Amino acid sequence: MCLAIPGRVKSISGDISEVIFSGLKRKVSLKLLPGVKVGDFVLVHAGFAIQTIDKNAAKETLKLLKSL
Amino acid sequence: MEVCGTHTVSISKNGIRGVLSKNIRLISGPGCPVCVTPQGEIDAAIELSKKPGVVITTFGDMIRVPGTTSSLEKEKAGGADVRIVYSPLDCLDMAKNEPEKEIVFIGVGFETTSPTIAGTVLKAKEQKINNFSVLSAFKLIPPALEAISNAKDIKVDGFILPGHVSTIIGAKAYSFLKIPGVIAGFEAWDILRAIGMIVEMMKGLENSGGAIHELPVQIQYKSVVRDDGNPAALKVLYEVFEAADSNWRGIGIIPGSGLVFRNRYKSFDALRRFKVKVKNAKEPRGCACGKILKGALTPFECPLFGKKCTPDNPVGPCMVSSEGACSAYYRYGKN
Predict the structure, then answer these.
(1) Which residues of B touch A34 (CB under 8 A)?
(2) Model confidence over A9-47: pLDDT tens digits?
(3) Total structural domains within chain A
């Protein structure tokens, strides 16, 4: 139930944004995550962006994984 | 204990239990929202579906959960208007397009989900939508972990903490924990790493004679989890709701573990609008879901598991929900 998927913000109009999920475009509310900018990667749950994705932290995890 | 149902599924699907050292036993916890919803709340949702003009909206898992005498799925087959939505915002479009109907959302979920409903309620108020209401059966994770930590019939040494709940509430929300906890992502690698971190933390505890010198909670899922979580989402959540005592299947009443509407949003409370009361109701006979949810039994120890109770013909919610421990263990086996 707490499934959330990552996507990239394509455009913003008020508190509604268009987010691209691997090629698929959907309307996503920014009501819970003000301050998001076009180009940011966000985590989306039930039509709402709930957190921004920290690219550096994600890269760090990938680097750790590759070092194994 | 892996707290989150999505972790349970990932652990089962990736066969993680089978590759761990014998000293490490993973116990599935209470993190399947549909599963911990007590029978009385499911009965209340079914009662609401029988009211004239009411459209029940919910996320998928909820409709098959058996109540005392029926389920939303059976009511739908009998003519009730029950619809599955992707986002609670879809309910507002329905409310606008069908003003003669009453749109009722069955609000089940943890802190990942409840802010999205609170946001929808704020939007409904802004847009003066009056034919939308919510049955609030939301639960909060930290009070449940506190209850499990203090339970006498189960001993947990560490928690794999839920990744997406924690994007909202942040690592600080677990600062009451007296045992190691790691907030983990959902890939096999994330979970294995989190288990390794818990083991390291336990070693550290042993070496320091049991004294905890630092915040016991660590974050493995750093790309989206911060110490403070998402303050804007928490602000929206607690603008609409406030914490109240709440009943969990199998665990009972946990102080401050549920969410009720604040007075200024009471008009959105479906129970109040339709004068429906949540009654005490008996759990399905022989179903061990309650004990499984707090880790006191594994699904394999339930006498109904795989016999009278299967995903096609579930007796209790832990077999209905795809995130339920019984469903995951049934689909993917012991490992």
Answers:
(1) 232
(2) 999 999 999 999 888 899 999 999 999 999 999 999 999
(3) 1
